Amino acid sequence: MFGKFTIFILAFTFIAFAGCTQRQNQSASIPQKNMKFKQLTPEEERVIVHKGTEVPFTGKYEKFNETGTYICKRCGAPLYRSGDKFDARCGWPSFDDEVPGAVKRIPDADGMRTEIECASCGAHLGHVFLGEGLTPKDTRHCVNSISLDFVPAGSEAQTDTAIFAGGCFWGVEYYMKKINGVISTEVGYTGGKTDHPDYKQVCSGTTGHYEAIEVVFDLHRTSFEEVAKMFFETHDPTEWNHQGPDWGEQYRSAVFYKTAEQKAITKKLIRLLKEKGYKVVTEVLPAKTFWKAEDYHQDYYDHKGATPYCHGYVKRF
Ligand SMILES: [Zn+2]
To answer: Is the dihedral of CA 45, 48, 53, 57 positive or negative?
Structure first.
């Protein structure tokens, strides 16, 4: 029995070393309510998706002077600060600067203007005009109110962090990034014996590390329980020492809790799954140092434009 199992492991270790290849996954997509993108009304969709323009002097934020941050209506990314807003008397909210890196400029289809989009999700915001001399920065982001939401100062994101391991970290990150309320993710290694491990050392199976992901999320929009549920629904928590075709102890399923509350919630979710008949093998361990993986592992599938072969959404709760 043990001998056979060892051969089995050896055979699959070979496949695991081949690394993550791409294959279309057959599983269901993540339910809309858990998706990062907010469901839009038809009018919001007309502007945000189909690049329409709201009627001037009608938008919610045209005459609006509260202190805070304007965020993307669709994905929640911070786009503009109230300190950069000015009254251009053009009928739309105007800003002479953006949150660094938050707004993408592209030539408009009309061949004359410059369109602006949310750099995170591509939502259409409006247009940017230069050289009008309206403010010292000589820039006017002319934005549709309907493309924005507003977060008053003092109520900005309150965040929490969680660490999960569920097989190849490329696939885990692909799905965790899509959760509504997740602000950022990083893949790396944790739970092993050595400091500053690299991918080669971890794949050798001698360091004891898990391929893991660190997730930062907004407590106004989600919770550890919601994020942990998605973790259990986007990898198979019943597979021991492997995930799909990837075999090796670095592919173990584990939740590395940072607080007693995270530990209790994880144990509750595992109990619920066991009551449903799942033979869950996920380990529940105290968080240890999280070592960020090499840059080429970060946002792997987004950069490749591919989808994971070893992970997919399966409703379990
Ligand atoms: Zn966006």
So the answer is: positive
Same fold, 16-37+157-304 and 51-152: no
* Architecture (CATH level 2) of domain 16-37+157-304: 2-Layer Sandwich (3.30)
Ligand 1 centroid to Cα of residue 152, in Å, is: 18
Residue among 72, 118, 142, 203 flagged as catalytic = 142
d(CA 145, CA 210): 45
Mean pLDDT score, 110-128: 94
Which candidate in 20, 168, 203, 310 is catalytic?
A: 168
CB-CB contact of 207 with 139 (8 Å): no
Residue 124 alpha carbon to ligand 1 centre in Å = 8
What is the CA(44)–ligand 1 centre distance, in A? Answer: 13
User: What's the CATH fold of domain 51-152?
Assistant: 2.170.150
Distance CA 47, CA 126 (A): 9
- Digit-coded pLDDT (tens) for 9-57: 444 444 444 444 433 344 566 666 666 677 789 999 999 999 999 999 9
Q: 68 Cβ partners below 8 Å, 6+ apart?
A: 82, 150, 151, 152, 153, 155
What is residue 59's three-state secondary structure? Answer: coil
Structure tokens at 49: 């998706």
47 is written with which tokens?
């502007």
* Tens of pLDDT, residues 215-252: 999 887 889 999 999 999 999 999 887 777 778 888 89
Asked if 142 is an active-site residue, the reply is yes
> How close is the Cα of 292 to the center of ligand 1, in Å?
26
Q: Where are the domains of the chain?
A: 16-37+157-304, 51-152
Regarding beta strands 159-166 and 182-190, do their DSSP bridges make them parallel or antiparallel, or are they unpaired?
A: unpaired
